[in-house]
Design a protein that fits this description.
Number of strands: 10
Order of helices and strands: EEHEHEHEEHEHEHEHHEH
Largest sheet: 10 strands, mixed
CATH class: Alpha Beta
Strand content: 15-25%
Mean pLDDT: 77
CATH architecture: Alpha-Beta Complex
Number of helices: 9
Shape: globular
Structural class: alpha/beta
Radius of gyration: 18 Å
Helix content: 25-40%
Low-confidence stretches: 1-7, 9-20, 27-42, 98-124
CATH topology: Spore Coat Polysaccharide Biosynthesis Protein SpsA, Chain A
Distance between the termini: 52 Å
Oligomer: single chain
Strand order of the largest sheet: 2-10-8-9-7-3-4-6-1-5
Number of domains: 1
């Protein structure tokens, strides 16, 4: 592989359109083409928040490295979001020449490792690991990653590897096709379990009524948007927990042309779901989302 790597440490405790669903068949064709054609003119940054995903890290690095090899305009930022497992050690094993110093805002570029089976580092690193020393929420990890992204177009997706990382490039293709800087592309989950789909439907109906905005598939990934959207709506005032998806989608529906792409879920191989995977996690996510729906409505009144 010919991919760069570096590690950046964050040790801050505080503050550090109507939907148009694209044709699934066309999406699959576009995704096939992405693998064969380099994304020559792209300037896209993908942020992947990782919280206690030690088992998934090798797979995450391997899959995103394939995208980097085929797409020279792509940047990937992996966020160790205050993990309490051995994620830091696994990152060091997978990217062995990266040794973070214990001070904030340090970027260390690795040198050529000489092993074709190991991520090879370059001075213009395109795969970066950034670390939040203490977990401050799912949203904080994403926002910290976006803060350090260089792309003109930005995206985030999950580290559970239940969806194909190439979905982000499919979203990017759709974004490019619109030729509209204020276009927001998001995933729409297909073939979900009935009970999971029911809970999502209930939340989106309530959110749509309270916020007077037609919100659908609030927590679906990926989410992709321009730096202009980030500067206007994400850079300041965004929530630092799981409400970030709702916040971003609300502003997208109100201010952007919204496009959805179909995404298909695979079974999680390693680790546990951090949001709505288990019943306890699902209940916590519902409680927080309910509270934030009314918080957001009050702030807009």
């Amino acid at each position: 592989m010919n991919t760069g790597s570096s590690i950046l440490i964050d040790c801050h405790c505080e503050e550090a359109c109507h939907p148009e669903e694209a044709c699934p068949e066309r999406m699959r064709q576009d995704q096939d083409l992405i693998g064969a054609n380099e994304l020559m003119s792209a300037d896209l940054s993908i942020v992947v928040p990782c919280y206690n995903e030690a088992g998934n890290i090798p797979l995450i690095i391997a899959e995103f490295s394939k995208l980097l090899d085929a797409n020279p305009g792509l940047e990937v930022i992996l966020v160790d979001n205050g993990s309490t497992d051995n994620s830091a050690e696994v990152f060091k094993q997978e990217l062995p020449n990266c040794h973070p110093e214990e001070r904030s805002d340090v970027r260390i570029s690795s040198r050529n490792l000489g092993d074709p089976d190991v991520l090879q580092a370059q001075d213009d690193s395109r795969m970066t690991v950034v670390r939040v020393e203490e977990n401050q929420g799912y949203g904080h990890g994403i926002l910290f990653g976006l803060e350090h992204a260089n792309g003109k177009v930005l995206a985030w997706t999950h580290a559970d590897m239940q969806t194909d990382p190439a979905d982000v490039l499919t979203a990017y293709k759709q974004y490019q096709a619109t030729n509209d800087e204020m276009c927001f592309v998001k995933g729409a989950r297909k073939e979900r379990k009935l009970l999971e789909a029911f809970f999502s439907w209930g939340m989106q109906v309530l959110a749509s009524i309270v916020l007077k905005t037609p919100l659908e598939e609030i927590n679906a990934q990926p989410k992709l948007f321009s730096r202009k959207f980030y500067d206007l709506y994400m850079k300041e005032g965004a929530p630092k927990d799981f409400s970030l998806d709702l916040y971003a989608l609300y502003h997208a529906y109100r201010n952007c042309k919204l496009i959805t792409i179909p995404v298909y879920f695979n079974k999680r191989i390693h680790g546990e779901a951090k949001g709505g995977g288990s019943w306890s996690g699902r209940i916590k996510l519902i409680q927080r989302t309910l509270a934030y729906i009314f918080e957001l409505a009050d702030s807009l009144a």
